[in-house]
Amino acid sequence: MSTLTKFSAIPYTGPAPTNRNPYVPAGAEIADARGEVIAAALQHPGMTPELGQDMPSFIVDKEQIVDVLRALKESEVLAFTMPLDLFAVDYPGRENGSRESGVGSRSNTSDLQSPNPDLRPPTADTRHPGRFDVIYQLYSLKNNERIRLKVRVADGESIETGTPVFKGLNWYEREVFDMYGVVFDGHPNLRRILTHEAFQGHALRKDYDPAQRWILTENDVAKIIPKIDPRFENVDTDYERVTLNLGPSHPATHGTLRIVVTLDGETIIGADQEIGYLHRCFEKMSETHTYQQVIPYTDRLNYCSAIINNVGYCMAVEKLLGIEVPARAQHVRLMLSEFMRIADHLVCIGTNLVDMGALTNFWYLFQPREEIYGLIEACCGARLLPSYTRIGGLAVDVPPDFLQKSQRLVDMMPKFINDVEKLVDRNKIFLDRVVGVAPISAEEAINYGFTGPCLRACGVPFDVRKATPYLGYETYDFDVPIAEGGDTYARFLVRMEEMRQSLRILQQAIERGLPEGPVIVDNPYVALPPKAKVYNEMESLIYHFKLIMHGIQPPVGETYFQVEGGNGELGFYVVSDGTKNPYRVRCRPPCFQIYSAFPDMIMGQTIPDAIAALGSLNIIAGELDH
Amino acid sequence: MANLPYDSSGSIIQRKRGGPPGEGAEKGLITLPGESEREIEDLAGGTYLTTTVDTMVNWARGNSLWPLPFGTACCAIEFMSMVSSHYDIARFGAEVVRFSPRQADLMIVAGTIVDKMAPVLKKIYEQMPEPRYVIAMGACATSGGFYRAYHVVQGIDEIIPVDMWVPGCPPTPDGLMYSILKLKEKIQRGEVRR
Ligand code: SF4
Question: Residue B16 — φ and ψ, nearest 5°?
């Protein structure tokens, strides 16, 4: 029986509770129509369209997937050249032969299953059995569209690797292997990526206990010996070859990165990385918490620009709920996102310059950053990790002098940016350290799935704020800065210019003024009623109780939403089974693919250059390791 | 010295201005850890005081901590705030941030320690010369924080001894600064021995 309709006698005129119904994304027909066009263009027998999704979506036969990937990439008209994401979802219910998809099969939630089988997600498919959905998401720069491919794999089965088609799939496949135990045949280096060597089992499987730890001792730590790049294999120099370990706690790297390099004299001829030194199980944790409780976890992904993560996650859930956030909340979200972007770039540039010995900039740039944190503190009381947004809006309204404070910040910021630019941009040491260092071509970058400033530094003007505008970015006048060369210097230039563009957006936002009205939706199934009402009205008290006890219950379905984070496309893929906890939250961390290209970028260069390049990529361990 | 309406000798010790170096050097008051205020004694034109070596050494140690930031996550960003211009830990003598464990005596564990990182943390701790102090900054380092998860160490005291715990997620830079001051007091009282 429905738990929410019990209170239907209460005079509430807003939207009805939705948890019983399957999710119908806005624009599903357009996606379906587009899917037909794609299928017609490709004429591939292994693809079965999956209808009613938020983007063109196909179920692909296991044997055909690499073929399909290649065809999509090489097709002239479709040109899906960028691998955005690869992850898996576990539906153990399917394996037990039950007709259900497995969604909602957790024992405490089975009563929430829809009695009507037609309303269940259309996943029980005899042609494609299997416990795991391995999901590929590709992006076409040419047509500005996305596609989702699902492959069903049973426990113990394997898939052919997609790395020859997309280099960016390399680490994703390792991640799926680590988390689910799905084996990718022919993968060049299929070892665990996020968890450690002594770990047993596969953590994101539904039957894995979230608190089950395995202790790693020093004796278990495996030695990494990097493969030597073929270009240098047979080059004979007079130097001895040494293998050097940097990190994970190394003076020159910020955060927990570990790189093992093989040197020939001073030249790097082989490099391998180990990540996962900050794997805090974001995805597993979000499965054990309610939708609202996940918000603080998202803060801690890219902790330099926490609000952008909050916004991305909340908007994904709002998309699933089909609700529109009030204009005032949208405006504040946009402004704070831009401030956060500036703070993110300030930290990146400041610390990157420290790596090259320019300490002044670091001290200097941290001052405006503190001021930005001051503004956020005035809004919600926290500095670094504010958790300021809520699903449906914001936690509290902004202070009355929010716009004046913002104006003051916008006025003071250009001086800092210009001064730092003046300090370094004609400095010979700086230029020698960055120009031409660690370059990557646009084609390679796309093949690796780069997004954000690092992609734009290769001359590709892809920005989520322009490509698929959200929060009303389409109404603002701003440019997407690009640079040429894809080297450390280009990344520096792009970040500098992006801060100025963010200031432009902020100036326009301040001039428009804050729209009047509430900062959170008036929908008792999503947002808590105001305290004054809770204390005075029976129904508000009940709504309050229901929401605290049972949480938000989005409709059954899945969705993906992307925002432009400090480092690139930050996407959240949320699967709901109609209960208060997300069935699966997948975060697409932009750093992940950028960092996976690092060995290619530094090959043939020296260690100091590698360090300078690493700083310019702005790898944030929290986001990299989830 | 203001003229007081009562005989002040005995309760207030007057500072004498020092003459040229060597003769009648400045005499003043000093408070050593664990002692009440006392006068520096003047003997044969020089200035000296008697105390124990331990007290003196502790006093010096507490005033010049060299931190090693073992920064892994978000807390490390707040650590950076604390050392940089706005909060400026240099005011309390702990600004010489060393990234080599062999040159540091205070390890600030700023951030989540996961199981994969645990052996590294232990090794780095062991590389520090004695005496060494540890501050666990933030909820994660203290207890695993809200990551009750399959890959997160539930408090670094599973691995290494800790002298100070700083609450918060992340603690504010002022909070961390306060813990350094508290640690300083603790060291000067001679309570930390390691
Ligand atoms: S205590 Fe909080 S801020 Fe500090 S590392 Fe843990 S999650 Fe991050």
Answer: -100, 140
Q: Cβ contacts of residue A240 below 8 Å, gap of 6+? A: none
Beta strand B67-71 with A258-264 is: unpaired
The burial class, CB within 10 Å (0-12 / 13-18 / 19+), for A400 is exposed
Q: How far is the CA of B113 from the centre of ligand 1 (A)?
A: 10
Query: Distance from the CA of A350 to the center of ligand 1, in angstroms?
Result: 22
β-partners of residue B164 are: B135
Q: Does residue B145 line the site of ligand 1, with CB under 6 A?
A: yes
Residue A121 confidence (pLDDT) above 50: no
E strand or H helix that includes residue A622: helix A621-624
Is the CB of residue A266 less than 8 Å from the CB of residue A609? no
Q: Give the Cα separation of A156 and A177 in Å (integer).
A: 11
User: Which residues are CB-neighbours of A522 under 8 A, at least 6 positions away?
Assistant: A14
- Tell me if A280 and B84 make a contact (CB, 8 A cut-off): no
Residue A5 lies in a domain: no
Residues 6+ apart with CB under 8 A from A454: A440, A445, A486, A491, A567, A568, A594, A617
- Judge: A280–B77 Cβ closer than 8 Å, yes or no: no
What's the gap in Å between A626 CA and the centre of ligand 1?
13
Q: Is residue A359 part of a domain?
A: yes
| Closest partner CB to A622 (pick from B70, B74, B148) | B74
Could you say which of A142, A170, A185 is where a domain stops? A185
The residue that leads in pLDDT, A457 or A16, is A457
Residue A18 lies in a domain: no
- The CATH number of whichever domain residue A430 belongs to comes to 1.10.645.10
Strand-pair partners of A390: A393
In a domain, A561, yes or no: no
Q: Do B116 and A216 touch (CB under 8 A)?
A: yes
Q: How many independent structural domains does chain A possess? A: 2
What pTM did the predictor assign?
Answer: 0.85
Residues 6+ apart with CB under 8 A from A69: A136, A138, A149, A162, A165, A166
What residues are paired with A261 via a beta bridge? Answer: A244, A271
Six token digits for residue B68: 């090693």
For the CA of B142, the nearest atom of ligand 1: 1
Q: Please report the ipTM that was assigned to this predicted complex.
A: 0.80
Distance CA(A249)–CA(A236), nearest Å, equals 33
Report whether residue B56 contacts ligand 1, using a CB cutoff of 6 Å: no
Looking up tokens 């109609």 gives A578
Same domain, A367 and A515: yes
Q: Which of B80, B112, B146, B172 to mutate to test the pocket of ligand 1 (most atoms within 8 A of CB)?
A: B112
For A533-579, how does the pLDDT look when each residue is reduced to its tens digit (9 = 90+)? Answer: 888 888 889 888 888 888 888 888 889 999 998 888 899 999 888 78
Ligand 1 and B73: CB distance under 6 A: yes
- Nearest CA to A352 among A453, A267, A263? A453
Name the residue facing A278 among B73, B99, B150 (closest C-beta): B73
Q: Of A185, A210, A229, at which residue does a domain stop?
A: A185
Residue B94 in contact with ligand 1 by CB distance below 6 A? no
Please indicate whether, in this complex, the C-beta atoms of B149 and A621 are within 8 angstroms of each other: no
Tell whether ligand 1 has an atom less than 6 A from the beta carbon of residue B138. Answer: yes
pLDDT of residue A14: 44
Answer yes or no: is the C-beta of B144 below 6 A from any ligand 1 atom.
Answer: no
CB spacing of A278 vs B114 below 8 angstroms: yes
Name the residue of chain A whose CA is nearest to B83's CA: A363
Question: Domain residues for A47?
Answer: 28-185
Cis peptide, bond prior to residue A25, ω within 30 of zero: no
The CATH code of the domain that includes A168 is 3.30.460.80
Q: What average pLDDT does range A305-319 have in this prediction?
A: 91
